[in-house]
Write a structure and sequence with these properties.
It contains 13 helices and 13 strands. By secondary structure, it is of the alpha/beta class. The protein has an 8-stranded mixed beta sheet, covered by helices on one side. Strands 12-11-13 form a 3-stranded mixed beta sheet. Strands 8-10 form a two-stranded antiparallel ribbon. A hairpin with a 4-residue loop joins strand 1 and strand 2. Helix 2 runs parallel beside helix 3 and helix 7 packs parallel to helix 9. The longest helix is centred in the C-terminal third of the chain and has 22 residues. It binds iron/sulfur cluster.
């Protein structure tokens, strides 16, 4: 059995048995895509492998009601229809026996229609994630996505009308995109009311069109710093609209490192963004409190955050505390049960 294709992603409440469908049948070649590199698995997934993986997972003591089978990595509904159904057929006995709670898939916005949604319903697919990437038609065109903003809107509405959970993926820093265009994309996605969102900063991988643009100088990757600042903004926008961001940044698994050429990759990217949210919030509050005071005097303050969020508020290697010290604040960060995530309370010492 090819163990590398089985990836069980567990959180406290949910587990995904991830099955990669690498580029199979996808008619496109998006500027940034090298599925071979991302999934670390270039061979076509066979139905035998699906069966073996699910048998293995069913013996792994996973909670049935919180575990889903997830077909990721390709454009599931764009692959050959018989092949797609043959993969779903393998999941059916495990769902019917109650061993796993459902199936998730990811696909392209232009590979969604009523017929395919009816098929997915029949096979107990519960959640569909669309690779939207941007809602700007110029950005979509220049990154060879092969679909439009309208396709994203139509597919999202259809998915919701059919009662599936809707997931939307967006990318930042694409060729011909900008800070403003990425913010606009997030605003558009919020209007579509997805249940979940994934945010992926663009990483340039070998053997992609983007790699050629990088070499010719037509594309330059945004820095890690500016991407963290943008993504912190996006994260805050989705949070305020009660939309769960289930992924921020690429997984460190797979063979990303081997194909990596350029781009804001960091193994703890999500945490960097959350720390940035805290830094911005703390700075804003401190400015409000001390705006009329002498700036040359060092001020001692205690900041209360949710007790699970102390390390994010402190920043990696104390980065936030060091930045605030440069601003003239000697900060002690403490946890409290009465403070919500991203909120802060300031006590002057
Ligand atoms: S649609 Fe998805 S699988 Fe196809 S080329 Fe684009 S990113 Fe890759």
């Amino acid at each position: 059995m090819r163990r590398e294709m089985l990836l069980i992603n567990c959180t406290m409440k949910h587990s995904n048995i991830s099955l990669f469908v690498p580029h199979a049948g996808c008619p496109n070649q998006c500027s940034f895509c090298n599925q071979k590199t991302i999934s670390g698995n270039a061979k076509e997934l066979t139905k035998e492998e699906v069966r073996e993986t699910l048998v293995f997972a069913s013996n792994s003591n996973l909670s049935a009601e919180n575990t889903e089978i997830a077909f990721f990595g390709g454009s599931f509904t764009a692959i050959n229809r018989d092949y797609m159904i043959s993969l779903l057929e393998e999941t059916k006995p495990f769902i019917d026996n109650g061993e796993f709670s459902g199936v998730r898939i990811s696909t392209r916005p232009d590979a969604i229609d009523k017929t395919v949604l009816d098929i997915l319903k029949e096979y107990k697919v519960t959640a569909i994630e669309l690779g939207a990437q941007s809602t700007n038609d110029e950005v979509l065109f220049n990154n060879r996505r092969g679909h439009t903003r309208e396709d994203i809107i139509n597919a999202s509405l259809l998915i919701k009308q059919h009662g599936f959970s809707l997931g939307l993926q967006m990318m930042t820093g694409l060729y011909k995109s900008s800070y403003e265009k990425d913010i606009e994309t997030a605003k558009d996605l919020i209007k579509l009311k997805p249940d979940t969102v994934r945010i992926y900063p663009t990483i340039v991988l070998e053997n992609t069109h983007l790699a050629e643009l990088l070499v010719s100088g037509e594309y330059k990757s945004p820095s890690l710093e500016e991407t963290v600042s943008l993504c912190a903004e996006l994260l805050g926008m989705f949070y305020e609209n009660n939309i769960k961001v289930i992924r921020l940044g690429l997984h460190s698994g797979g063979n990303v490192h081997e194909g990596y050429l350029s781009g804001p990759y960091h193994p703890a990217f999500g945490e960097l963004c959350e720390s940035e949210i805290y830094l911005k919030n703390i700075r804003k509050k401190l400015f409000e409190i001390y705006k009329n005071e002498n700036n040359s005097e060092l001020k001692n303050v205690t900041i209360y955050v949710n007790k699970k969020e102390i390390s994010k508020a402190t920043g990696q290697k104390g980065k936030n505390k060091k930045s605030l010290l440069k601003d003239g604040y000697c900060v002690t960060i403490k946890g409290s049960e009465n403070v919500e995530k991203y909120q802060i309370l300031i006590e002057e010492n």
